[in-house]
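User: Before I run my own analysis I want an independent prediction to cross-check against. Here's the chain; please return only the structure tokens and, at the end, one sentence I can use as a sanity check.
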Amino acid sequence: MRTAPARRRVVLTGISSRAWEHPADRGALTALRELRGFDQVLKVLAGLWSERAWRLEYLGGAIRCDHRQHPRVHRLLRRGGGSLDIAELPELYVRFSPDLNAACVGMSTPFIVVTSRAVEAL
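Assistant: Structure tokens:
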């Protein structure tokens, strides 16, 4: 069995969240922001779906990753967050599904949901 060479982990300090944006997304957002009132419309639309209701749905139908449940996935989240210099990590949930999928949900307190199939693929 081969082992991967040890690599020093790089921490990207002081980077902007804009650095994570795909160039096509950045262009689309720039065009949308030029529309007068777009930010207010987006906030109203986001308010139609209760973030709390989404969170409760995932709490009831998924497993929250922490050091006791899915510790390997939790370690990966901590490593990734550490490399990206994220001060407060979002909550991470694993939902049983044969589909390979993941999503980020929420505006005020975002959280991440990955399917069990995605965890297997890791």
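Sanity check: The CA atoms of residues 9 and 79 lie 9 Å apart.
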